TrEMBL record:
It comes from the Bacteria. InterPro entries: AccD/PCCB, AcCoA_carboxyl_beta, ClpP/crotonase-like_dom_sf, COA_CT_C, COA_CT_N. This is Methylmalonyl-CoA carboxyltransferase. Residues 264-499 form the CoA carboxyltransferase C-terminal domain.
Amino acid sequence: MEQKILELEERRRKIELGGGDKRIAAQHDKGKLTARERLEILLDEGTFRELNPFIEHRATHFGMADAEAPGEGVVTGWGKINSRIVYVFAQDFTVFGGALGEMHALKIAKCMDLAAKNGAPVIGLNDSGGARIQEGVASLDGYGHIFYRNSIYSGVIPQISVIMGPCAGGAVYSPAITDFIFMVEGTSQMFITGPKVIETVTGESISSENLGGARVQQSVSGVAHFSAKSEEEVLNEVRRLLSFLPQNNMEEPPRIYCKEDNGYDEEIVDIVPVEPTKAYDVRDVIKRVVDNGDFMEVQPNFAKNAVIGLARIEGHPVGLIANQPKFMAGGLDIDSSDKISRFIRFCDCFNIPLITFEDVTGFIPGVMQEHRGIIRHGAKILYAYSEATVPKITVILRKAFGGAYVALNSKAIGADLVYAWPTGEVAVMGAEGAANIVFAKEIADSENPAETRAAKIAEYKEKFSNPYVAAGLGMVDDVIDPRETRQKLKEALELLRNKRETRPPKKHGNIPL
């Protein structure tokens, strides 16, 4: 028995060494950690348990018969984050460049299946050169098995992808289906076709970093949700994100103790200007109403005219959506519509209440927006809010105009509670535009059109530029003192804690993708 145990330990040591000391040193020289070092940072100390370490490839072509691939180029298993179980896989770039083959994919698929059966999040640390070409179509089939599980387990367990090196070709589609993507600045890239292929086909010359680096994928394409300067920072942000999420779709999000307060904030009134055309940073409002000002913003550098993220109120996780007047006056465009709607659906999947801070002039006008499909993209917001059954609360800070007002969680599409500050304006459009249309003839026929126009704008503002008309029609549940916003939200969340709402039976809806 002792001899057998020694043999077992030797086999494990060989597998844990991956591609060997030389390749590990090369990984470190690039500023990158190994798969196992990353797992040590990600997971609670001493909790990682490996699964299927002895799986081996069975390829024989192109010299593969004698090629060793310790651990098959991927480390899989489970561990704990903040004392809660998670399943993980980490591709090992020191073994065949982390290239995915048939058995490599099998290890990942088995890990995902266990995660789904046991209702726990799955986290993938991606660092791979792509498909293992020597295995031919078997490697492509392996990708298919992973994509299938990403899809059917979507909305069942949280799925998080961390890009820690190259992620090219078909490999990018697995992270794209998951809930959140993290990237490391300077060392991770994502693209379907690399720079060399693009230059060959189109003649365009571009570096890997400028094509699909963290900056591009976070601020231009919106593919990535988070990025950080180092692998350690990224992995710690993954741990932070999980603190807001339930283990699965059947659980409530985890509550964290929060010190009692009266919910009254004297300083919040100084953040939002009364003048509707003056800009401010809506994140300052959010941080005043959430616990300890702790707000984890999602996609902070993409579609900056909208702000989304996770926070807590009285210890309970909430999803926050807000217009950002600092950019494009907080108007909605194609990118912000996609950003908002996907976040709504994620929160609804995992029982996270939604709070919307509204200050919107409308959908952004323009030929490019129309031709690129603002109708279809804007409709996603309407669909996502209408479909969601979690508690849904809206606070109208200032402007709530036109179709954008309806789309951003109005009572008509299922909001449970709608509050408005005294500065709120619920109207078809702003006073200036409305006066030009409603009083066009009177202004044109008057002796002094400019004076008449100014008077009509003032008349329209007096009648409609306030929250009380909408409140009189039941479209706003209450007009509140801004200083009591946090307290009102605490009460609303308590009121809606046991909300139960069903939808007509169906296979699934047809969101305008």
